[in-house]
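ok so i was messing around last nite and threw this chain in just to see what happens. nothing serious, just curious
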Amino acid sequence: MPQLVDEVTDLLQQLIRNACVNDGRPESGEERRSVDLLESYLEGSGADLQRYESAPGRASLVARLEGSDPGAPSLLLMGHTDVVPVNPDRWRRDPFAGELVEGEVWGRGAVDMLNETASQAVAFRRLVQEGFKPKGTLIYFAVADEEALGTYGAGWMVEHELDAVRADYVITESGGFRMPLPSTTGIKLPVMVGEKGTYWCRIRVKGTPGHGSMPLRTDNALVKAAEVVRRIAEYQPQTNIIDAWKAFVHRSDLPPDLADMLLDPAKIREFTAGFPDVGLARMVHAATHTTFAPTVMHAGVKTNIIPDTVELDVDIRTLPGQGEQDVLAMLDEALGDLKDAVEIRAASNDPATASAVETPLWDSLQAVTEKLVPGATTIPFIIVGATDARFFRRAGMTAYGAGLFSDHISFAEFAAMFHGDDERIDQESLRLSTDLWLALAHDFLG
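result:
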């Protein structure tokens, strides 16, 4: 449908140009700009629209198409409207111009995840306009603040306005990209059935102040912190083969020797160290290990003062079943004799979540995906970052990360564009995603 491709392209460009940049501050994001846009786009379609504002400027939009059968399963399509900050000097094009260049839409959020937010809106509008009468209710949810833990978005909505977004099934980011797997039975497209937990912590490294002109034998907190960073970066936690990983390997129809390697804790580290596709190697490693990434450091007050404290932020992602005590034990192991020289304070402790694979929605996703991409099979995977799906799983709903992307952009490029440079999406992927939501609504709700 060329008209729909043009429509979703235009809407995506406008969302990018709104530049709803979320840097984590309560006053950032300003997602109301994109809610204004989407509300205007959906007005007059016949759907019930309601906007919610958790804080000034932090708006979300809910659109509903009520089903005819209260006993039929309901479906919520969710896309976030905020994007992460960007360094424009590293981009080949203006990250907020939303340019269409040779069939690709460029801009911050094109991949993460304004493409789905736009395609879901276009599909929802088309369904309402064509008079679609679903048995189960269809909900479109454009949500704020996904990029900063969901405090002003999905988390707030589930806590304060749960009835507005309650559904039996939820679909959000991110799946449907073409993993370069040596499968023996065709294209494999991942659907995210779970996600790792988030444990963000701040490590305070203690030292003793002194004059910068006499550094000999000083207790320099910055020097000590450098060693703390090195130890955390080099720490190798135990490989953990979780159920979702086993299901991914078994359903991917891999050559037996490769499948055996990916299920053997002793061999996975060897695989990730030598596999030529760095993006895939990183994903395999993250899906089978708790990960530790030192990301932010604050130290010192003046050039000629030996710093007595350093604050280091560490992004830790946990596997299902792991809690705070497990993380602290691993940090103690990583730090060794320096553990008594630091104080650790949790900034965010959000355990891992997962949904079942054997569901009617899974069957429907497989059926419509195979029609749109003949020979393709959906396979379960665990997303190694965090999405808003976790709030809905904890409220008792089944939530998947799904989508459908072309092979125009390689997996390595696609993976690198999440929070990376030169983010862009091709129009064929926009077409496939829009067709997926349309077909899924008819198959699952019709």
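not much to say yet. The mean pLDDT is 95.
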